[in-house]
Amino acid sequence: MSSPRRLRILLVEDDAIFAAVTAEVMRERALVRWTPTAEAALAAAGEKEWDLIITDIELPGMSGLELVMKIKASQPHVATLILTGHRSFDNAVEAIRVGADDFLTKPVDRATLIEKIDELAALSARRRASSSATILAVGAHPDDIEVGCGGTLLSHIAQNHSVSALVITGGEVGGVPADHAREAARAAELMGVRLFHINVGDANVGELDATTNEIRRVVEELTPDTLYTHSIHDFNQDHRSVHEASVAAAPSVPRVFCYQSASSTVEFQPSRFVAVDEYMDRKLAVVRAYTSNVRQRRYLDADLLRATSRYWSRYGQTRFVEPFEVVRETPAIVSPEWSDDEAEITGPTSSPTSNGVAWDQRAPIESPVND
């Protein structure tokens, strides 16, 4: 009988003595690679398929927290464990916020460390078991999706997820529908997403039964793991109607998140924050596909989009972030490639949404989903 495959663990620790002792503990069941910096770890992370990444918080250069956030954006299935010599509640909260799967304080006894390694390696395996995810983003008008979650969708695409966009109207108010249709198709092509453009008509979006049925038809065709839609906290009536229709049309979708729009109210309260640093420039390029709107819509200004994304980065360790309210986040029977870590930030408070579904406020992609 062949022996079980040894785990692959990447250890990021600037204290060489502690690293040597920790690696020795793990060698019974794992092949361990040690790097003293987060920058070296990022390079190593892309070289092979890791079962677990263990990192200290305080490292020379990039911190361990920033490393975890970057790892989660590019490889959300890999479990991460933070070890630190500082017993601090703030450190533990920050570790959770950036998407770490667990947090231990040094010194860690041998039995506890081995138990945690086995637990987190199994978590990575479960996430990897279903390497594909199906994503659907719904927007009331052309450009809503790109503005609200374009970077997040690009992150999904980078993970080889199947991504589709459903645009409900042609944007008759304030433009020529034919122009908007061509621009939406071009934006979808630039992103690499499948486009459904049903063109209900701006005046008819509020007819919830019709809009719900259109969304349900696409949901039934795609059976998505994750759905992105408008927030109920929005001044725009079309946006609110599409939110209500999306939630009603997708009761079986395990993950439903609401993105911010230019018309979101101050009641918009995100609890998930996806790092989009490496996708921000591409997102802006996609937005520029809406040439008829870019010339007249202030909310499409590149500097404003960057500033908005930068504002939300105060909840993370990166420069650019897309925020989401969480309507529902429950594991699927076969889970998608980012689960309780799409990213990234969660916290302890909860409050009801308009439809009575509880969501965590200030709690955790991406990055973009598997459990």
Major sheet details: 7 strands, mixed
Q: What is the CATH architecture descriptor of the largest domain? A: 3-Layer(aba) Sandwich
Integer tally of domains: 2
Series of secondary-structure elements, N-terminal to C-terminal: EHEHEHEHEHEHEHEHEHEEHHHEEE
Say what the CATH topology of the largest domain is: Rossmann fold
**Amount of beta strand:** 15-25%
CATH superfamily of the largest domain: LmbE-like
Q: Which CATH class of the largest domain applies here? A: Alpha Beta
Kindly state the number of beta strands: 14
The shape, in one word, is elongated
Coarse structural class: alpha/beta
> What integer value in Å does the Rg equal?
21 Å
The overall pLDDT, averaged over residues, is 82
Provide the low-confidence segments as ranges.
332-371
Percent in helix: 25-40%
